[in-house]
Specification:
single chain
Length: about 190
């Protein structure tokens, strides 16, 4: 079969970029993400940009810039080792509150999975954070109560149509709350000094 058109290859690379993540944010997952960004850039370099229309050329440039940025963050700056507040990010849970019921039960399941993973994620944070700037640690300590507020006040107001799903989300929020409280104490008592 003939090779795919450059625009199809570019579309596949954009889709691949969307799948590059770090899951529970372990050191191995950060290393794997960097490897995948390097591989994506190598494949992108083989795309015949002259064969792309103007919009696809712009998309290719944007994708390459995004990949370079992610690699800079992962390998050079190593943001995950110096920015404590990023470990408090709960994007799937936050997304539940953009518009009531917009994500449906699938969004609730994703948020519950994210919340159940919080103890593991924060254990990885404690293993990887390496002498962040004091002000960044102070900022993370100041932000932790807002994450807890979301777990205490917002999550209990979520509605679910599937039986047991709301209870599952609330249980996951309880697990996350305990881990968050433990992590906030660690930041204050160990990371800050």
């Amino acid at each position: 079969p003939p090779p795919p058109a450059p625009s199809a290859t570019l579309a596949a690379l954009v889709a691949e970029a969307e799948r590059i993540g770090v899951g529970t944010r372990s050191a191995a997952e950060f290393a794997e993400a960097a490897r995948r960004w390097h591989a994506l850039r190598a494949r992108l370099a083989t795309v015949d940009r002259a064969a792309l229309d103007r919009d696809d050329r712009v998309d290719a440039e944007l994708l390459d810039a995004h990949a370079r940025t992610r690699l800079f963050e992962l390998e050079t700056v190593r943001l995950h080792t110096v920015v404590p507040v990023q470990w408090l990010d709960l994007p799937r849970t936050n997304a539940l509150f953009v518009r009531d019921d917009a994500l449906g039960d699938a969004g609730l399941r994703a948020a519950a999975a994210e919340l159940r993973a919080v103890p593991t994620v924060l254990a990885h944070a404690r293993a990887q954070l390496a002498v962040p700037a004091r002000v960044w640690t102070e900022n993370a300590i100041a932000q932790a109560p807002y994450a807890r507020l979301m777990l205490d006040d917002d999550v209990p107001r979520v509605r679910a149509s599937a039986p047991g799903l709301r209870d599952s989300l609330l249980a996951a929020a309880g697990v996350a709350r305990e881990a968050l409280d433990r992590h906030a104490r660690w930041m204050r008592d160990t990371l800050l000094p």
